[in-house]
Amino acid sequence: MKTQLLDANKPEDIAAAGEILRGGGLVAIPTETVYGLAANALDGRSVEKIFLAKGRPQDNPLIVHISAFEEMAPLVKEIPEAAKHLAAAYWPGPLTMISEKSDIVPPQVSAGLDTVAVRFPSHPAAQAVIRAAGIPLAAPSANLSGKPSPTTAAHVLEDMDGKIEAVLDGGPCAVGVESTVITLAADPPRLLRPGGITLDQLRAVLGEVQVDPAVMNPLAAGEKASSPGMKYKHYSPKANVVIVDAPFEKYRDYVNAHNAPGTAALCYTGEDAALDVPAVCYGGESDYAAQARELFDALRRLDDDLGARTVYARCPEPKDVGLAVYNRLIRAAGFEVIHLG
Hints:
transferase; EC 2.7.7.87; nucleotidyltransferase; ATP-binding; Sua5_C
């Protein structure tokens, strides 16, 4: 298969993407979070192609993307009042809401669950493609399963060239980590995956919102994943990532004492000069938005630029958008953390 590279700034390329999707093909599209690998969400056979292209486990549910709030209604049995309030505050944007699904959503999308995850992205190209296709789009991140999510079209092509019909280049993603996922099928609502909409922002609208234990910890044995990004080791470069939870001085000393060939560091901006190993920076220590925006590109650079075998990573502070960064990095590390205090 030859993968076309389309331009999100060209109306004819938006139309071409819509035609491919209507015909049952796959198109990687830009969103404000990461690039998504899109297919017709109402056609189970098209959705199955996503799992094949990504090598994605079949029990990992997908998110359905829409281009207007009204398009949520056919996908769910009813729109909860909480969804209306959250949509008024944060849609379009990096927020996914889970509620009980309608019969038109095929089981391939929901991984056999009785719920569906729905998002209204804010990226104008994503909205334009959904409108051009005339259908809701199922779209997980457009990478090989387990690898760092793509935030540029070049990242997508690294993983998907020859596997999908087209990539729509809309430039780098503004948020850089996948959307916040909240389930409204639970009482009280529960945060399943942190993202660009923070826990405090959710609570400002809904009041009580619980945090699922899987946000900070591995999914319990035998527990089904009710959201993408919960069950498996995710977002990981080829290198073995180890998080070092320590103040910078202790982190520096630890890394400099463990500087065998093939060792690299993932640190905050400006810290690399004090380290005796090659390093990639991913935002300032207290700039959580920059950390989120730069994390996945930094993880890919550890492979592509440094060929690292072992990476010692600065531990993100799990608050605000930093909770999303922590959630992604702890999974990239397979929950391997060294606590130095």
